[in-house]
Each structure stands twice: as structure tokens, then as C-alpha cells.
Write a structure and sequence with these properties.
Length: about 190
């Protein structure tokens, strides 16, 4: 018979081991920084900063087989504070087909959102207007299809919308629901 105290001690050791992230993981097909960060309960910008040399300048591009260090939650939070999204260029409807405009100059930014909007873009997409994550969330603000349509987005444009349309859909969702679709997840 196993003594109850021995069982409790084994459970505590197991819980403690589970709370510590592994020192390193290998990226698998379909992994994303936000997914990995959620698995280890750390901030994805901190995970990115800890592995910028491996990942490169685009936090949305992970390659299977890459080895990523998993920082502690405290270190990830410190690193996340230093995260600055890269300036990613995107063609806008107002620009000629050969011109690109930096995301910071993207049109139709809702004045009411201010820095909240910038925070959401940084944490949701890293500034990539065409990113689609593994769970089907799309664009700068990582809308699901149903949220996109509910906020007035053209169903045919989901997955290929302009920056201006994404900003307009964000403005509508923000006016309707405030920060609730993003703040609990992004810390904005």
C-alpha cells in the first residue's frame, strides 16, 4: 500500500516540474509564437525577443526544426517590455501599385483607439496585415471570420482585406465592444 503522504509528495514534485518550462523546444509545423507562449503562460513578445536571433525580423515566420529557448515568465515580461514590432510595408489602396507605405502611416486609424490600437496590432499580428494563424484568425487584429462579418467586414475580403478595411472593421468592433475582444488576451 502506498502511504498518502508519499502520494502527495509525488504530486507536488510533478506539479513543480510542470510549472517550469523546458529550457528549449523544437518548433513543429503549425506552431506560432502566440501558441507556444500560451502553452507556457508567457508573453509572446518576450518569447520573440529571447529568440530574435533564431527567428529573424518577422515574428510571424517560424520554421519547423528551429530551436527556441523558453524564458521564465518574469524574464519574458521584461523582454516583452523591450519589444518593438518591425516596420512592415504594405500596399494601400491610395498608393500606386509599386509604392509601399509603412504600417505606421496606414490610413483610417480610429482616433478613439489611440495607442490601444497600436498595442493590439503589435501583439496580435506583429504588424503583418495578411497573417493568418492556425486557428483561422486573420489580419492586423486577428479577427475570426464571424467577428469580421459581425463588425461589417466584407465576407469575400476575409483573408485578403486591405489595411484600410481592416482598420475600419477594427473601428466598428471597437465602437461596439470596446477593448473586450482584445484586452484580456493582449494586455493592452
Amino acid at each position: 500500500m502506498i502511504h498518502p503522504a508519499a502520494t502527495l509528495a509525488a504530486i507536488e514534485i510533478h506539479r513543480e516540474a510542470a510549472a517550469r518550462p523546458p529550457a528549449e523546444i523544437v518548433v513543429r509545423r503549425g506552431d506560432s509564437l502566440s501558441g507556444i507562449a500560451a502553452r507556457y503562460r508567457i508573453e509572446w513578445p518576450g518569447l520573440y525577443e529571447a529568440n530574435r536571433a533564431v527567428i529573424g525580423e518577422n515574428p510571424n515566420l517560424l520554421n519547423p526544426g528551429e530551436r527556441l529557448r523558453i524564458p521564465s515568465a518574469a524574464k519574458a515580461a521584461r523582454l516583452a517590455a523591450s519589444y518593438r514590432p518591425p516596420v512592415i510595408s504594405a500596399v494601400t489602396p491610395a498608393a500606386a501599385p509599386t509604392e509601399t507605405v509603412a504600417m505606421q502611416d496606414a490610413p483610417a486609424e480610429p482616433a478613439a483607439a489611440g495607442s490601444f490600437q497600436e498595442c493590439v496590432i503589435s501583439r496580435e499580428s506583429g504588424g503583418d496585415p495578411q497573417v493568418m494563424n492556425g486557428s483561422g484568425h486573420y489580419g492586423l487584429y486577428q479577427f475570426s471570420y464571424s467577428a469580421w462579418v459581425a463588425a461589417g467586414g466584407n465576407p469575400a475580403d476575409f483573408g485578403n482585406a486591405s489595411v484600410a478595411e481592416q482598420n475600419q472593421v477594427f473601428a466598428t468592433a471597437y465602437a461596439t465592444d470596446g477593448t473586450s475582444p482584445w484586452a484580456p488576451y493582449d494586455g493592452c
